[in-house]
Amino acid sequence: MKVIIDLCVVPMGVGVSVSQYVAECQKVLQEAGLKHQLHAYGTNIEGDWDDVFAAVKECHTRVHAMGAPRITTSIKVGTRTDRDQSMQDKIDSVKGNDA
Amino acid sequence: MKVIIDLCVVPMGVGVSVSQYVAECQKVLQEAGLKHQLHAYGTNIEGDWDDVFAAVKECHTRVHAMGAPRITTSIKVGTRTDRDQSMQDKIDSVKGNDA
Amino acid sequence: MKVIIDLCVVPMGVGVSVSQYVAECQKVLQEAGLKHQLHAYGTNIEGDWDDVFAAVKECHTRVHAMGAPRITTSIKVGTRTDRDQSMQDKIDSVKGNDA
Amino acid sequence: MKVIIDLCVVPMGVGVSVSQYVAECQKVLQEAGLKHQLHAYGTNIEGDWDDVFAAVKECHTRVHAMGAPRITTSIKVGTRTDRDQSMQDKIDSVKGNDA
């Protein structure tokens, strides 16, 4: 099953700056070979369900290993059976309605 | 890795009432033997990471099988390494601060 | 416009335990006279759009005033024009499909 | 109070394609003069709390007016008192950790 997710990992108990933990998650996604795009409040990720969620789990594992005692993560998960759609297709279809 | 999640599955393209799909997801959680608690905007689930996310995937599979061509799901995911905490513990610790 | 929301306020930079901040938000909701129900990963709130979002803003104001330098909050927001529905109605309609 | 949010408006009961509704929300944000950036699973928005949430309410009003009987929206809301930070700053601070 193909999935597009939006992932936002929030380490708690590590102070106010969390960018190094987010950067580590970007590394996880790159190592996993998953198409992904960082934005100001999360990261869009596209791929096979199992690959994508294995990467999400690895993000939690790594962020804990970096010293974060607690993590709260928000994920939006989209699947569809009617047609194939990429992250770029979603953006294009909104922009095509902007005329 | 132990996890507490909040799950909200939204079938799209099936009309305005989605309670039968949510009820099917409750069945998935029961069959999986996962501790869970329905609320007005989602379901709290507690268990091992792999068991919990296998159930989330099964929810998508079943809801598509029931005829929903598209699903958008919101998940909050909490893990912690500092101590063990159940869903009930989280509620109790807030209420303990209510005095 | 009537709204049902699910609110999860996460203070950052204040250590690993955040229950006192969540308890303060419960107080805000009580003072605002809004119907609300705490669960293990957030709080369901029901009311008029403006009243509910004024309370959400007040939660941010109070949690910052308690010393949290940064807050990240997740909100799910439901509105409908086809019929009136309470938080309890939503739960009942899922349970009615459980038979 | 300055805020950065991530907004994802999901109209229900209108069929499987929702891009015209998302496009209308983009128009709302433009009319409001709010800095915003569409991504594949939502839109980042930056501005004063009251202006941003007035726009979110207007999105619900317009999407209902277009015929959607039900809407479920996900919002992430970030505020901080320790320093001023823009959407671009957030992206830059993650990328600065990528070295």
UniProtKB/TrEMBL annotation, chains A, B, C, D:
UniProt domain Thiamine-binding protein: residue ranges: 6-95
InterPro entries: MTH1187/YkoF-like, Thiamine_BP, UPF0045_domain
Annotated Gene Ontology cellular component terms: cytosol
Amino acid composition bias (Basic and acidic residues), ranges on this chain: 79-99
Entry superkingdom: Bacteria
Region (Disordered): 78-99
Protein family membership: Belongs to the UPF0045 family.
Protein name (Swiss-Prot/TrEMBL): Protein containing DUF77
UniProt source species: Rhodopirellula sallentina SM41
